[in-house]
Amino acid sequence: MNNFILLEIVLFYNYLDQTKLDYIGHYMDFDFIFDLGPLRMFAAYRGHVEFINVPTNHPHAHPNHHELCLVLSGQGLFEHGDEVYPLKAGDIFFSELKEAHEISSMDSYDLVLCFFDLRFEQLSSGTICDQQSQRLQRFLKQHQLHTSTNHGLEHLISFIDSNQFSMNQKSALYRDVIQSFLLSCFDYLSHSVNHEVSGSIYIRSCKQRLLERMAYPIDVEDLANHVGCSSRHLNREMQKYHAMSVQQFAILHKIDHAKALLNMNFRIAEVADAVGMDPAQFSRSFKKAFGCTPREFQQGVNQS
């Protein structure tokens, strides 16, 4: 091999080592900016990573952003500095700035996870006055690097995944779901191992009732009665764990279900009826969520 070419290869690999493979080429292209009181959060959803054919991402560090990961399936290890954490489905883990870390699945070759890149800034003005900013402040003040969840966040990731490319990402609903997922992860990492589970029980029961009554209009009182608490308390729990109201949570499930039916070429009136809305209300809600009408969405599906 030509000595000049060999020197270029050596210099290139030295460069990769110096930069610690810090997402060269697309670093800093954050999709979302959330202002929460005096704090600003930048977030970018990077999708799924499989540690199957290549079972490790090798030791590396990020000087300017954090990573937040949710394990979707399989098993592996998260090595961060001198600490080693075993991974399984449902685990959340977080990397600190400039800390060398590695994710691997050497034994089972079956680890699958999704992750976000994150960056935080302190704003010159703003006070910590709402629940969302308090949750982020609590996380930044003190948190664990790894924990296990006791209620699934898979429904939020499923919504994010299914709408990542087809949905107007600037829509209020999509942003709410991204924020809800991140704040829920922060809650787990900033709480002790004995994270309270009452909210998860209410939410699981609420979700089941929504599925049972998908074809009926949203009735928050009915949901609260089914769960066994007041509507006010159910709204507080939903805000605490998912940063949205019960009404918003219910609309999320209805619209996501409607999108699947539209993909199957059901008529728009049939889909509206299936999710308990009149056609005009359904069209407004769908456009607010996805940035297009049900008819425009269905035409796009048929043309693809």
Topology:
Layout lengths: L2 H17 L12 E5 L2 E13 L14 E8 L2 E5 L2 E5 L3 E5 L5 E4 L6 E12 L8 H11 L4 E3 L5 H9 L9 H19 L7 H15 L7 H8 L3 H12 L3 H18 L4 H7 L4 H12 L3 H10 L1
Antiparallel strand pairs: 1-2, 2-8, 3-6, 3-8, 4-5, 4-7, 6-9
Helix pairs in contact: 2-4, 3-4, 5-6, 5-7, 6-7, 9-10
Provide tags for this entry.
304 residues, alpha+beta, Jelly Rolls, Arc Repressor Mutant, subunit A, six-stranded antiparallel sheet, three-stranded antiparallel sheet, 11 helices, 20% strand, globular, disordered N terminus
Please give a structural write-up.
By secondary structure, the chain is an alpha+beta fold. The protein has two domains: 159 residues, Jelly Rolls (Sandwich), CATH 2.60.120; 96 residues, Homeodomain-like (Arc Repressor Mutant, subunit A), CATH 1.10.10.60. 45% of the residues lie in helices and 20% in strands. It is built from eleven helices and nine strands. The strands form two sheets. It has a six-stranded antiparallel sheet. The chain has a three-stranded antiparallel sheet with strand order 5-4-7, with no helix packed on it. Strand 1 and strand 2 form a beta hairpin. Helix 2 crosses helix 4, helix 5 packs across helix 7 and helix 9 crosses helix 10. The longest helix is centred in the middle third of the chain and has 19 residues. The relative contact order is 0.10. The N terminus is likely disordered.
